[in-house]
Design a protein that fits this description.
Shape: globular
Number of helices: 11
CATH topology of one domain: Arc Repressor Mutant, subunit A
Radius of gyration: 24 Å
Structural class: alpha+beta
Strand content: 15-25%
CATH class of one domain: Mainly Alpha
Length: 301
Amino acid sequence: MKFGNTHVSFENTTTQFQLIIRNYTELKPYLSKSLYSNGKVNETAGKLLECLIIRLTEQGFTKPSTVLKLTEYSEMISQTDIKGLREKTNCDLKVLNKTHITYQNTNGKYITADLCKCSENVENGQIYFELNDAIYKELCSRKSAFFRYIPLSVFNSNAKKNPHQYLIYKVILSNSWRNANSIRENKIKVKEIYNYCRTLPRIDKANGQVLKNIKIPFERDLKSINEFDYNYSSPDFLNCTFEEWLSMDIIISWKEELLGLDILRNKKEKHQDKIERAEMNALTKIEMENIRKSGRAEGDS
């Protein structure tokens, strides 16, 4: 799904969800000229959706609906201008209410439905939200996943000063959780970040100035994230070719351990132990069968 420059997706091994804005032209009064002409909406719509799902997670996913106070939302995203936030949130609610979800289940059938039902505006200082049942059930099965542990600092980016920080931070977080207890836990390809970060211009739109229009803005906003230190697998990351840059690794050193990483590591260790035990049992069974056959052959002779 694209919310302005923001990507939000949900998928597992059996189901992939695609979110699409319907009747996009009706959103024109609520978008800047630049966003509308590029077929995008404010990334704050993505932040609002994620904050609402975080609230559902805090409630234990006991039901698909929740209420979030505007003042609570302002604290989550570190926004002090309540009046301005109300205006933005009213626009973002209209985006969410015009978003459809399409997904294909295991029998190959495509299903399309509304993403959610929201209040049209902030009402009495509160945001009302009810998630689509399909996504609700999917997230219910993942109570220990992304939305439970996402740090609120990810929402504190300044879209004007550091327009790429939000997506860079999110994909690095996701990489650490997805690769918990592996050598890639704190190592990510520049290419993976660049492909995810659609706020950065694609190579064909960089006007031949990759350093100025891609690398330097990328480096500026990566450096603006205070929760970790980092270094490249090669010190020549600014002076190399674009393809060489994409192939580099970025090594992350978190200043504080991410929430949930220890749980994910333990789960993966237990899963690996289970696989190894199953393999050992299978080998033992084969060996015992070979011994049995060998004994039978000796007896026949």
